[in-house]
From TrEMBL:
<feature type="transmembrane region" description="Helical">
    <location>
        <begin position="1061"/>
        <end position="1081"/>
    </location>
</feature>
<dbReference type="GO" id="GO:0016887">
    <property type="term" value="F:ATP hydrolysis activity"/>
</dbReference>
<feature type="transmembrane region" description="Helical">
    <location>
        <begin position="963"/>
        <end position="985"/>
    </location>
</feature>
<dbReference type="Pfam" id="PF12409">
    <property type="entry name" value="P5-ATPase"/>
</dbReference>
<dbReference type="GO" id="GO:0005524">
    <property type="term" value="F:ATP binding"/>
</dbReference>
<feature type="transmembrane region" description="Helical">
    <location>
        <begin position="1031"/>
        <end position="1049"/>
    </location>
</feature>
<dbReference type="GO" id="GO:0005789">
    <property type="term" value="C:endoplasmic reticulum membrane"/>
</dbReference>
<dbReference type="InterPro" id="IPR036412">
    <property type="entry name" value="HAD-like_sf"/>
</dbReference>
<dbReference type="InterPro" id="IPR018303">
    <property type="entry name" value="ATPase_P-typ_P_site"/>
</dbReference>
<feature type="domain" description="P5B-type ATPase N-terminal">
    <location>
        <begin position="17"/>
        <end position="142"/>
    </location>
</feature>
<dbReference type="InterPro" id="IPR023299">
    <property type="entry name" value="ATPase_P-typ_cyto_dom_N"/>
</dbReference>
<keyword id="KW-0547">Nucleotide-binding</keyword>
<feature type="domain" description="P-type ATPase A">
    <location>
        <begin position="254"/>
        <end position="376"/>
    </location>
</feature>
<dbReference type="InterPro" id="IPR047819">
    <property type="entry name" value="P5A-ATPase_N"/>
</dbReference>
<dbReference type="InterPro" id="IPR023298">
    <property type="entry name" value="ATPase_P-typ_TM_dom_sf"/>
</dbReference>
<feature type="transmembrane region" description="Helical">
    <location>
        <begin position="217"/>
        <end position="236"/>
    </location>
</feature>
<keyword id="KW-0472">Membrane</keyword>
Length: 1188
């Protein structure tokens, strides 16, 4: 209905972003609104409830489509596969409110400049702004472009020069007021969900039970609902308190803002607007917004964002003349100039002007911290079929209930019951057949799993992903800091001169490194900072600097270098040494390290001497910036010697600079050219002790492990072998792809990596030993592909058809940029893998968010980086998470099956009694629902995860043959038992004695019966009367609920055995004992309360025999058929079933391809078999959870 729109009536909101939505314009019609209001009254509030669950229906019923420009209501629909609807009212903001502060007229110069979205949004001459608020973000109507646009941040198209000129001296008070009114406050507010929303869901059932005079039951449900709501509110409260702690400091910071005319003013952070000029002073300050650094430099702790608590140096945005947007003006990442909200500024150092200035980029929920809070408040829905299957199952139950309703109507109408009684009974069938506690039952397993994970130091901000953890079959790992230790040990340095590499200088020998440019580079080419007398920074930088035995000071205390900033960082020898001819080196300017660029550069000055530029980074990147004659001819083979042993290798280079510029005037490309190569730093990068056992556990469970690293390819291969990711018997095939050149098209070559011989390979980008001859049997063995980020890029562009084939066996991906890491994870997902990503933050943020399950090894409890954060700094958390995910998934299925069976048992019993126009009484319902099912529901989920990972996953779907068969067979067994009981009781010789209470007299045989003189009366107004059928059905149903709970409570291989769940076992034993006590007790008062009749002891024994038979058959069916994996595998083979997952299809295809893998071959993109002709695509990606 909402799909046929003319131009102007629909548009895209946040186009190309993660939260992209379609937006449709509607105008409210008063006659439609009146009709809906009448419908709400006459339906006793059911219509608003329907509209609450179906927002699109609300809009379609109340409004008519119109252009977005005229709309007073907008309908929003997400563009993902869920197509979730929501609606928002269009609100007007009146600028006339500002007239009291200053005279604002339509042609005021402040609002006539239409370069900015804010001014384009102001409708003239009435000075009004139309806006909507979606997921905490405000959007205004851009009158010039005719679309809704996000407000609360500076425009992306602004150039750096424009930012410096327009905002470099601050905003005027008038501009601030206008922006404050339109953008809203710079706050991150978290509200608690209103209680009425939670209450309204239970209202329908409770009203029905009151109308049927089930007062006790209704009261019990109300008490349970109050307890349930109290717990829900407590959980919400706990979560919102956590979120409040996360954001409270943000909303109450006092900042210094520079205004154009008034100068520096103290201001509360909530009054900040995009464009304000912040003055940062002193140390240790929380950022209340996102801001672009214009002047000075800052050292920031970005742990909240990335999970890595290594200080990051921020540099000012250079003022360039070009009109290119500021974010894309240089190849370096623009984030190096941005101070993010929620991060802590550890140190702010002014440049020549002495002050550190930053312009506010984004406020409120637009900021990095706001994004974290929004990701918690509005988690991305998981496309997990479990939830869709649950809805389908509910619809089946609704269908079953409808059949029951028709049957009830027929029986009660034919028996001449009054119409209101007929309607009540028919509606009652729905509340019995569709368990209201079903959605809650699905989430209890997740809640318990979340608590167990928390005890292990694993925190989760997206609980619905815990079930997805149970389906993971591929896990990607970052290398440095994840598989290997964070702290690197400097093993040695390989200096070089014009003649080539010299002997390795080993620091363990205790001999000092001779003075020279290499020594100076080690002392100054880093981003370390001095804080409270302690040096902080990247572990690699720390180890390198410590090896020089120099110290750090800030200039200005005891000396000052001419032309250097007053507080420049200075490194100098600890004590004047004869072998060091300089008194110290001042670090004047930094181009910080970037993963994408794989290098960092500093401009430094020897005290009283030359200006120098030093570069440090990946050896091949550093060498590419050097004069070719300074790079030794043995560069490749020398590098190979160390990388094959698993060392981390860093290249160093330098050059002298002309001193006629100011340091900030140097452009990066000027500095990073014609360098002189200095040598290699060799770091020992040891595996963490926990890495190998954790990887072995995953591999033995048939979960694929993949390494994605920014480090050297050969180092990555060595670490993969040492960690067990690639076993000794398996081969590694190197894939190298080259871009199109003038002489040839893009090429791809395949070489087998040789472990023993050291042969220099011709291409400088890869440092791998190649085996020239390959025996035929190598093709049959297991193999892994290894490739670099550059090759991955070329393959993606030119060899689309080969990409899925490579990914099926691709294990080592080195020199990957953060963007390539995200792309790789996405490509794995296209092959229908359930992908986990484990990293330590920073470079992995994109991949962590892209993966189905992202795990960040971090000290933080929550970070923007990923849904899971582990305080344990090693990969042991990955198997734990998978185990808990599997346990939670199986628990969800157990609860689902149990709730479905409990409903069906009650449904069957009630329908049989309806045949006699009878039913269960209030207390009978109450006992079944509260004393049995509720207690089982709460305790059944307490089983922990099984300690061993098995080599197969639990079913990922509710509508899978074993699960459906289990439910159907158990329903049929219960149905058969109830019918047998119902018919047999009517055939007993004592049944025809007037349906009076029959009790055995002590020491008498069953043939001598006393007959109670009371005749059966109707009890209350709900048509329930005592009968032998009622008594039999109630006992069978109640004890059957206990039996089903025991049968369905799964233990191994995904959960701890049932007997270890002591509380659950105790509950079952007590419940069974109570039921058997009631059955055999002969206490008239108890029977009267529960509306039961006494029956002969023999009949009670028959009831126990029926239940015992049911239990044995049910248990045998469950264990011998449903849980028999071998049997299902045979059935699959017999029916020729094969998994439809993309990766399975490719695996089968490659297994039958004798030419795969191609070894010692080179292919070109213009060859028919390699181009895009057979490029694969998976347009409708739905994460098929086909089983292993």
């Amino acid at each position: 209905m909402g799909d046929h729109f003319e131009k102007g009536q629909q548009a895209l909101l946040n186009e190309g972003e993660e939260n992209e939505m379609e937006i449709f314009g509607y105008r409210t019609q008063s006659c439609r609104k009146t009709l809906c209001l009448a419908g709400s009254i006459f339906s006793f509030g059911i219509l608003p409830l329907v509209f609450y669950w179906r927002p699109a229906w609300h809009v379609w019923a109340n409004c008519i489509p119109c252009s977005l420009q005229e709309a007073d209501v907008v309908l929003l629909r997400t563009t993902d596969e869920f197509q979730t609807y929501s609606w928002k009212k269009v609100v007007w903001i009146c600028l006339s409110a500002l007239n009291s502060a200053f005279q604002l007229i339509p042609d005021h110069p402040l609002i006539t400049d239409e370069e900015y979205i804010i001014n384009r949004a102001i409708r003239k001459p009435d000075l009004k702004v139309r806006c909507i608020k979606v997921q905490k973000i405000r959007y205004v109507w851009n009158n010039l472009e005719g679309q809704f646009q996000k407000i609360g941040s500076l425009e992306d198209w602004l150039s750096s020069a424009k930012i410096h000129v327009k905002f470099g001296s601050g905003l005027t008070t008038e501009e601030q007021e206008i922006r404050r009114l339109i953008c809203g406050p710079n706050t991150i507010d978290v509200e608690i969900t209103p209680i009425w929303k939670l209450l309204i869901k239970e209202l329908f059932s409770v009203c029905l039970w009151f109308s049927e005079d089930y007062k006790e039951y209704a009261f019990a449900i109300i008490i349970m609902s109050i307890i349930s709501i109290a717990l829900t509110v407590y959980d919400l409260r706990e979560q919102s308190v956590k979120l409040h702690h996360l954001v409270e400091s943000h909303n109450s910071i006092t900042v210094s803002v520079c205004e154009k005319k008034a100068g520096v003013q103290e201001l509360e952070s909530r009054f900040l607007v995009p464009g304000d000029l912040l003055i940062l002073t002193g140390n240790k300050a929380q950022m209340p917004c996102d801001a672009i650094l214009l002047d000075g430099s800052c050292v920031v702790d970005e742990g909240m964002l990335t999970g890595e608590s290594i200080p990051v140096t921020k540099t000012p945005l250079p003022k360039m003349d070009s009109s290119v947007p500021w974010k894309t003006q240089s190849e370096a990442d623009y984030k190096r100039h941005v101070l993010f909200c929620g991060t802590e500024v550890i140190q702010a150092r002014g440049a020549c002007s002495g002050t550190v200035k930053a312009v506010v980029l984004q406020t409120g929920f637009n900021t990095a911290k706001g994004d974290l809070v929004r990701s918690i408040l509005y988690p991305k829905p998981m496309n997990f079929k479990l939830y869709r299957d649950a809805i389908m199952f509910l619809l089946c139950l609704v269908g079953t209930a409808t059949i029951g309703m028709i049957y009830t109507l027929c029986v009660y109408v034919l028996s001449g019951e009054p119409p209101e009684e007929v309607v009540k009974k028919a509606l009652d069938v729905i509340t019995i057949a569709v368990p209201p506690a079903l959605p809650a039952a699905l989430t209890t397993g997740i809640i318990y799993a979340q608590r167990r994970l928390k005890k292990r130091g694993i925190f989760c901000i997206s609980p619905q992903r815990i079930n997805v953890c149970g389906q993971l079959n591929l896990v990607c790992f970052d290398k440095t800091g994840t598989l290997t230790r964070d702290g690197l040990d400097l093993w040695g340095v390989v200096p070089c001169d014009r003649s080539g590499f010299q002997e390795v200088h080993n620091f363990a020998s205790g001999k000092a490194l001779p003075w020279g440019p290499l020594y100076a580079a080690m002392a100054s080419c880093h981003s370390l900072i001095l804080l409270d007398g302690t040096i902080h920074g990247d572990p690699l930088d720390l180890k390198m600097f410590e090896a020089t035995t120099w110290e750090m000071v800030v200039s200005g205390h005891d000396f000052h270098i001419k032309g250097a900033p007053a507080c420049a960082m200075v490194v100098k020898p600890c004590k004047p040494a004869s072998q060091v001819p300089v008194a110290g080196i001042a670090i004047l300017h930094q181009f910080p390290f970037s993963s994408a660029l794989q290098r960092m550069t500093v401009i430094a000055q020897e005290m009283g001497g030359d200006w120098l530029a030093f570069m440090k980074g990946a050896p091949e990147r550093v060498a590419s910036f050097c004069q070719p004659e300074t790079v030794p001819t043995s560069f490749v083979s020398e590098l190979q010697i160390y990388t094959t042993q698993g060392f981390r290798v860093i290249g160093l280079a330098y050059k002298k600079l002309e001193m006629d510029h100011h340091t900030t005037a140097f452009m990066r490309d000027q500095v990073e050219s014609d360098l002189i190569f200095l040598g290699l730093l060799i770091f020992e990068n040891r595996l963490k002790e926990e890495t190998k056992p954790a990887l072995e556990e995953l591999i033995s469970a048939r979960i694929r492990t993949v390494m994605i690293t920014g480090d050297n390819l050969q180092t990555a291969i060595t670490v993969a072998r040492k960690s067990g990711m690639v076993s000794e018997s398996q081969k590694v095939i190197l894939i190298e792809a080259n871009e199109t050149t003038e002489s040839s098209s893009a090429s791809i070559s395949w070489q087998l990596v040789e472990e023993k011989k050291h042969i220099a390979y011709r291409n400088q980008d890869n440092y791998i030993n190649i085996r020239e001859e390959v025996s035929d049997n190598s093709r049959e063995g297991s193999y892994h592909f290894a490739l670099s980020g550059k090759s991955f890029q070329v393959i993606s562009q030119h060899f689309g058809s080969l990409l899925p084939k490579i990914l099926i066996n691709g294990t080592i991906f080195a020199r990957m940029s953060p963007g390539q890491k995200s792309s790789l994870v996405e490509e794995f997902q296209k092959l229908d893998y359930f992908v986990g990503m484990c990293g330590d933050g920073a470079n992995d943020c994109g991949a962590l968010k892209m993966a189905h399950v992202g795990i960040s090894l971090s000290e933080q409890e929550a970070s923007v980086a990923s849904p899971f954060t582990s305080k344990t700094p090693n990969i042991e958390c990955v198997p734990h998470l998978i185990k808990e995910g599997r346990a939670a998934l199986v628990t969800s299925f157990c609860m689902f099956k149990y709730m479905a069976l409990y409903s069906m048992i009650q449904y069957v019993g009630v329908l049989l009694l309806y045949w006699e126009t009878n039913s269960l009484s209030n207390y009978q319902f109450l006992f079944q629902d509260l004393a049995i099912t509720t207690l089982i529901g709460v305790t059944m989920n307490l089983n922990g995860a099984y300690s061993k990972l098995v080599p197969f996953r639990p079913a990922g779907r509710l509508i899978s043959p074993p699960l459906l068969l289990s439910v159907i067979l158990n329903i049929l067994l219960s149905l058969a038992m109830h019918i047998v009981g119902f018919i047999l009781v009517q055939r007993q010789p004592w049944y025809s004695m007037g349906m009076h209470s029959i009790c055995t007299v002590q020491n008498e045989t069953t043939s001598k019966l006393t007959i109670s003189p009371t005749a059966p009366d109707k009890i209350g107004s709900n048509g329930v009367f005592t009968s032998f059928e009622n008594t039999t059905i109630w006992f069978l149903g109640t004890i059957n609920c206990i039996i089903v709970a025991l049968v369905f409570s799964k233990g191994k291989p995904f959960r701890q055995p049932t007997y270890t769940n002591y509380i659950f076992v105790l509950v079952l034993v007590i419940q069974l004992s109570v039921c058997l006590f009631i059955l055999f007790a002969d206490i008239p008062e108890l029977y009267r309360r529960l509306d039961l009749l006494c029956t002969p002891v023999l009949w009670r024994v028959y009831i126990v025999i029926m239940l015992g038979s049911n239990f044995i058959v049910s248990l045998v069916v469950e264990e011998a058929i449903i849980e028999n994996r071998a049997l299902w595998m045979i059935i699959k083979r017999c029916f020729g079933y094969q998994s439809k997952s993309q990766y399975r299809i490719w695996q089968r295809a490659l297994a039958n391809d004798p030419s795969w893998p191609p070894i010692n071959q080179t292919s070109y993109s213009d060859m028919p078999a390699c181009g895009r002709g057979v490029s694969y695509s998976n347009p409708v990606f739905e994460s098929n959870e086909e089983q292993l």
